[in-house]
Amino acid sequence: MSIAQIKESELEEVAKREYCKSLGLTAKHLLQYPDINLGTHGDILYALEMSSKRKLIVCPRGALKSTICDISYPIWLLLKNSNLRILIDSEVYSNSKTFLREIKAQLESERITSLFGRFRSDSNWTEGSITINQRTIARKEPSIQVSGIGAVKVGQHYDVIIMDDMNSNNNSQTKEGRQKVIDHYKLNMSILEPEGILVVVGTRYAENDLIGHILQNELEMNPCGPE
User: Per residue in 159-177, is it b (16+ CB within 10 Å) or e — as a string?
Assistant: First the structure.
């Protein structure tokens, strides 16, 4: 191996370590989402990088919250731990499938595979779930599974559950619609590992929607943000 090759290899190892340390760096540079920046998205990135097990992220539509939380964050987690079991859940199953489609495209890109190796496995790479090639532990659950309201993965267990935009105008106008979302959230809690991470991402649509339920009943009154 030449000196130039050794230096290139060392640079690659440095790059891998830096990406694994920083969600923001991964999202902006490795995944090439140039609009993500600390000024606008610093609080979201900080919350996701924290060691806390329960995360509530509330922001307006169009703030790139799904790009960060549903695409960049799961990829970043798997770069750090290839054996994780992640569920991405949304109001509509087709939305969750869209997130997974973009995740698969990212994991098959030369930018990522040149550094971290081949992710696509021969055993499972579908529109509803993927199991990455780097996994070293045999588990019945895939690396990433997607779902929607009304479809609880009974018998499955996840290390990370991301619930994105569970409320909308479609299900927030009636008490019954709002309660259906809250009931789905509670069922998800039963398939999350005791030490697992739950991320709820969304926009407020009603005072007593899912976000309101969490704020009123579960939120620890400790500010989340840089000191």
Answer: bbbbbbbbbbeebbeeeeb
Query: 51-217 in CATH: which number?
Result: 3.40.50.300
H runs (alpha helix) in the chain: 3-21, 23-25, 38-49, 65-66, 73-80, 93-107, 110-116, 175-189, 210-217
From CA 176, how far away is CA 208, in angstroms rounded? Answer: 11
How far apart CA 192 and CA 157 sit, in angstroms, is 6
| 53-112 residue pLDDT tens | 999 999 888 889 999 999 999 999 999 999 999 999 998 899 999 999 999 999 999 999
Q: Residue 134 carries which side chain, given as an amino acid letter?
A: Q
* Domain positions in the chain: 51-217
pLDDT at 173: 86
Distance in angstroms (rounded) separating the CA atoms of residues 112 and 95: 24
210 contacts 166 by C-beta, under 8 angstroms = yes
Structure tokens at 142: 């895939």
Alpha-carbon distance of 58 to 61, in angstroms, equals 10
Amino acid found at 72: S
Mean pLDDT computed over every residue of the chain: 89
Q: Using 50, 70 and 90 to split pLDDT, how confident is the model at 223? A: very low
Give the sign of the dihedral formed by CA 55, CA 61, CA 66, CA 67: negative
Both structure tokens of 223: 């500010």
